[in-house]
Write the structure tokens for this entry.
Amino acid sequence: MNTIIFSILTLLVISGISSVILFFISRKFQVFEDQNIQEIESVLPAANCGGCGYPSCHGFALACVNAENLENLVCTVGGLPTMKKVAHILGKDSNIIHPTVAVIHCGGNCDLRPRINQYDGVGSCAIAHNLYGGETGCTWGCLGLGDCEVSCKFDALHINPETRLPEIDEEKCTSCNACVIACPKLIIELRNKGLKSRRIFVNCVNKDKGEEIQSSCNVACIGCGKCVEECAFDAILMANNLAYIDSNKCTLCRKCVAVCPTHAILEINFPTKRVKE
Amino acid sequence: MKTFKMGGIHLKEYKFSAGIQIQTASIPQQAIIPLGHYLGGPSLPVVQKGDKVKVGQMIGQASGFVSANVHASVSGVVNRIDVHLDASGYKVPSVFIDVHGDEWLETIDKSAEIKRECTLSSAEIIKRITDYGIVGLGGATFPTHVKLLPPPGKKANVLIVNGVECEPYLTCDHQLMIEKGEEILVGVTILMKAIDVKQAIVGIENNKKDAIALMQKLAKTFVGIEILPLQVQYPQGGEKQLIDATIGRQVPTGTLPIEVEAVVQNVATVFAVYEAVQKNKPLFERIVTITGKSLKNHGNFLARLGTPLANIVEQAGGVPEDTGKIVAGGPMMGRALSSLEVTVAKGTSGVLFIPTLEAARKNMQNCIRCTKCVVTCPMGLEPFLLMSQSERSMWTEMENERVMDCIECGCCSFACPSNRPLLDHIRYGKSTVGKIIRTRQAKK
């Protein structure tokens, strides 16, 4: 009986002394953090996706607290509502954000871009890209193996099994940039979402000369330059046999879409034109 | 019988084209010569559309030290400089020449007489090799002059000649030794003079007994050359493995053979050196083995660079019906082709036709930790670990696990009983880690 009481008392004393020591040590070595950082973190989406350019939501909160103003600090997932809350906590002006969305610059599906060989290797775009130019005659185009789909944490990107091309769900896309980095062929870009969610872009990244590509893909940009001529707003650049539309200058007039001989320019979310009788 | 000690596997040989005399491939109507088909920087064109060229004329200039000149393999008119598909699966800048006749530069000695005396000095030999675009013809296509000009403080004391041809199916080096054995040995003496060594060892695998016998007989008439038969094992043709097999030296990780005072050259490269130095002939043709289980006429074809592979395949009886995969190179390290419009490049050692049933990969299963990959790796790496790390993008860890030592021989993928694509992941990791290392060095 005595041994039991004695051992209980000894343990109680040890734990008592340890907790006092720990209390004082924790007070001495406490890391002081600005209170605001925790407050900001609580309004952030906690996705830790890195879309803001900072490591984790904590990193972004830290950057916001330390910054002069919130001009270059945008949480793409939370968007404007979240940034307004952050601005409110810090007592700073909130920034103006142009909503962006991911865009796939390749229209070469199975019908329009025929397969000339069969790939039998590992089902990863990065590995296939490291090995060779792909199953079609166009060595720049989408490989369809889904590295982008795997990288998306917001369920916004899926490979269509019929066309073997990725498709973006606008509602779910948070512009976090993960798919842009995942694509080894640099086919994905974050572009302005546009007025009424409308946008126009060249659906191709092929830099080969026109005669070369035409046998490989029916909807490739052949670098003919007709769109550059047609554009009244100087919004289209041509380099390396490829056209590119600057979304800051584009007014969505759609004249380039009509004039492109290979239908390489795509328009999203426009009402279908009525066919003239 | 000697061989290398670490790792290695024993493969079926499939040497269907062994003993078949070298035939000359017909010259195409248009030659498409790639400008950047070797290790190192691509060369820059020195001709333009409309220029008349003769065989042996320089059409591409090296863009740096680790780069090589390119010479016209046909005579005619330059059609254009444009991109064209090559064995890498991508389109690379190439010179298109419309062929007219077969006119060689007057300075080239076309006679078949064997010249044994070399009157050039060591420096002149190396300059000739540099000017004439000689690269490693074993398949790696590393510019030869770079190996012959070691950094200050390093000197070789032995020349090792690779007559091993360890890849199944390929027989171009074997046939070259049978038909041009003496020329090859003259080439060896020329290289010995160039790097100032007194000893040369020619390693030949024991499945080429006729070549061993012939070369041993010929070597008696030369000084300092030893013909060494080696036990058959893959990948004995790898530089580091061959050095271990012939002279028992281990090349430290991350370094080159010159570190252990050895220089290794392939027999075809040595033959090209002989032709460059003794016959004033730049590198513009090579022997290509065309073979496969179902092929009608296996053969070893002497083909001009830039000849579309489709042309040579026609001469070999055409593409077999049951072909599932066409491989440029050997079955272990070669590259599957997406088209036969790819042309002969300096590194094209062979074209193989693999039947569909054998070509398709089997389904991947889980790693069972059997360690077959570790046991067979000739560089002492852990392929199963490197693959896991590559899948998880653990680049720092991969660098620490010496992924850059990997010679991409394929023993691991071959040995794996679960059909895991080990080499695919390791190659991707190696390419990414390589980029990281280069960026780091550039920042310094």
